[in-house]
Amino acid sequence: MSAFNSVIKSRDSFMSKWKRQTQEGDVLSRVTARRFIDIFKAAEPVVNFDAALYFKLVEKVVVFKDRLVVNLLDGSEMELETE
Question: pTM, whole model, 2 decimals?
């Protein structure tokens, strides 16, 4: 949820990246960027975990003692502190 909400907070930056990806790179990158644009263009912050949304966005999560590193399917990586 935190990763999703972090993307929403920086939506403009991510949208610029995804729009570039729709024009460049391999077919999978272009398709993924289009999907992310569709998901995030009108998205609101989430409060509850949504498994379907998770599997549409996340490639992997690496767990450390004090943080999580979330890798999205578009190639983005974000580090989130754990509580």
Answer: 0.86
